[in-house]
Each structure stands twice: as structure tokens, then as C-alpha cells.
Structure prediction request, 197 residues.
Amino acid sequence: MRDNAGVCSNSSMRIASPLVATVALLLITSVALAQGKSLAPPPAKVQQAKKKKEDQPEGPVATLLGFEALPGGSSRIYVELSESVTVTQHEAQGQIVFVLENAQIQTSNTENALELSYHNTPVLRAKLRRARLDKQDKKARKGGRDVELLLEMKAEVKPMHRLVEGRKGTYRLEVEFPAGSGSGSDAPSPPPPSKKK
Prediction:
């Protein structure tokens, strides 16, 4: 409405604004329905399934690096995997490297090293790391990536490795060292416990 001076009053603007918004919403809804589109958001379960599928990596994933002291003095380093992998072994001075072809590491925590200097094993340190492939290797491999299990050794030993099938399609790379092949005695002794007065 106009007041005496011919200017629109605030009360008429308040009525017009919601009316314009309602008309616009009705137009958008009718156009969407005419095109066969639904305006309702997808159910939460569908959204979660889509997100889960997008987050899942393609190919095998190294999920856990671990150590086991076995009965009789032998020891084992293992890597938990989401799928089977091809494993190759390389040796260098003081190191043994197992290459897990086309595998990947999904979380950075998996790359933390296992410090084994005080354990009865010939392994000083075990670590998973992403391998750096050159361009030729990337083209030859479908995923263009590898994971390496790097073992820094206290003693020169020939380990045995095998890939073991687990539950629900998972696998485990096990690297075993025989009894007497290394001991924690070669490592520096731990500091003595502090005495409380």
C-alpha cells in the first residue's frame, strides 16, 4: 500500500516477500517434476554406500605391519593385506627388501617403523614404505605403485617368506627367521630403572 506521500509502506513489502518466495518455489518444483526429477534428498544409506565405494581404493592395501616372537626362539615379521599380491625379494648390504607389487598404503600410520633392537630377532627395524617407480615401471604395471617392506638387519640371515590366505579374502605376508639367527644381546642394553628415594 502507498501512504499519503505515494511511497510503499513496510507492511506491504513484508507481505510481498514471502509471496514471491512461495511462487518461485512452486515454479521450481513444477519444472523439476515435469522433467521427472525428485526433489527429495537420497536416503542416508544410499549416500553412505556411495561415499564408502568412493573411499575404497582399487587393488591390494597393506593395512598392518607386525612382529611375533615364536616358540623355540624363531621370529616373524608380517604384513596384513586386503588382497593377494606378487612378492619379490631383494637383498643389499644390511637390508632385505620385499616388494609388494601393485599394493598401496592407505593410512600414514601404517608407515611407522617397528623398532626391534631389544627383541630376539635378527631384524633391527621393519618399515613399510611407498615405492618410487620410474615411468617405465608405472606404464608396465596397472596401478603404477608398489609397497616395500624394508628390513634393516642385525645379522646376515636368509629368511623364508610366504603369502597366507586369511578370512574374507584377506592375505598375510609372513617373513620367518629361524631360532638362533639373531638375538637382542647384540643391541645396546636398556637403561637401568631409576631408583626412587
